[in-house]
């Protein structure tokens, strides 16, 4: 892990549920006293406090990031609370949003949503929709998304996406268990990660999980108020060709109802453990108390499954947000006060979210292999150890290309760099030796005037002549260079023309003919180059252009070349990029295909309707005729 870190306390929000018709309103007010905070004041009514020795406070004030009052709509809640967390998850940070409150206060409504109206969709479907919209827009990265849906009931974990839910009783399903690795990372056994490539697939998984949650619920077992549900979106992203992968998890958590067995006194004195309905919420509170205390080294995460699963979200590597759901009618004032108190403690917890980056091992291996080869070559040079295995066909072709470029380069400063490999250096010498041997220049003194040792060259006239001849040679060299570059241009033009020609006849022919050119060039044996050949740059192209076209080029490649091509494909540094782009292309193709199918369907419908209309017209015309 590396990269940037964001330190942030857990953000707390409150949401007040609208009053039901017969409920008596409690007294509270929402104040926007500061720029980045709001406050909620709850007044304890006199009649509730009656009967006690009344020296207790009557008004309680709590601070939240923002308070959503009764009329707040789902889209506003999503925009303020969930969108920023979803953005962080897209950027590679972990995020958690959890709803905490008493039974019936609107946790499920806020996290999942109501089923009656589309506008009642909660945070999970809206977040999925937002995330997939963003992924569609960003073609600079390759994204993979998975979801998982965990239910914790009575300290046992269940996979809500397990298809066996329908047929089996909850007790018979395999339990999700916690495993901890040596680095203290939590892994969940028996919890499935299902890939979702688009919003629809992800929503189907959410519905499947919600259905499974309801199946397990019987009148005797009001699981939803007693169980915790954690819907997790797992996102991984990578730039094509880059070795770095970012992974993030976004937990959307609907906790169990937080109410206590016996109502607390209005003052809210602490109750003993036994009075908690839900022991795991008690342990959650313990963790939060421990985290809020300074200098506490031991945090009791392990006491419950829920705190173990959410360990990263509480005082760890995560951007966490809590929504306190409140049912502020008169009867629930004390529960609301205890929910708010809990939230105030949660707000003290500091998290440190780091960018979750890791290196893709496939690309790392390719890069390291290259480095190893370079080091081996250098080592062989230094130790004088000879490398005996023959250079491959591919290496020889590459070398010839480098030598040719070097020889053609008019710049006298240019160097021939083939790396620290004795075999390659030898090959270069051989190449140049053969080149010289094959140039049948009659006057050898022109080739290397300094080593002929001819006495006559010392006379002033001879010297003058020699200088002239050298100048002439230099001039000729320049002319040759100009001609060579002209030829190259012509070659390119010819190739382009060839391309256009073939493209005109069929798209496939283009790739075939261009392949035949490269093969033709590649076939020239590297050791038999002569000056005539090297200067006849255009010839191979022209020749190949009129050669019969190869069909099924792959079959006609020699075994060695085919193998070399496979190796090249595998080891080419951009192979992963190409692979990634292929995947993207495949995805786009599938999208285009399904759109095409839809268009066809609609077209068929239109045709069908047209047919019906024509028939109606005819019927009507037939009816009207006798009347006229
Ligand atoms: N903001 C809201 N607007 C409209 N209806 C709401 C709102 N909040 C909650 N409700 C309704 O109140 C009822 C109870 O809410 P919900 O089931 O979300 O509570 P809960 O806190 O999840 O309860 P439990 O702990 O039993 O799961 C539901 O019928 C829900 O539709």
TrEMBL record:
The record's Gene Ontology biological-process terms are:
microtubule-based movement
PROSITE patterns assigned: KINESIN_MOTOR_1, KINESIN_MOTOR_2
* PANTHER family hit by this protein: CENTROMERE PROTEIN E (PTHR47968), KINESIN MOTOR DOMAIN-CONTAINING PROTEIN (PTHR47968:SF67)
Keyword ATP-binding listed? The answer is yes
Q: Record's family?
A: Belongs to the TRAFAC class myosin-kinesin ATPase superfamily. Kinesin family.
Domain (Kinesin motor): give its ranges.
Answer: 9-349
Residues annotated as binding ATP: 101-108
Coiled coil recorded as keyword: no
Q: Name one GO cellular component term.
A: microtubule
- Where, if anywhere, are coiled coils annotated? none
Instruction: Please give the SUPFAM superfamilies that the UniProt record associates with this protein.
Output: P-loop containing nucleoside triphosphate hydrolases (SSF52540)
Record-linked Pfam families: KIF9 (PF23735), Kinesin (PF00225)
Q: Which organism is it from?
A: Platysternon megacephalum
Protein name per UniProt = Kinesin-like protein
- Its Gene Ontology molecular function terms? ATP binding; microtubule binding; microtubule motor activity
- Which keywords fit this entry according to its UniProt record? ATP-binding, Cytoplasm, Cytoskeleton, Microtubule, Motor protein, Nucleotide-binding
What subcellular locations does the record give? Cytoplasm, Cytoskeleton
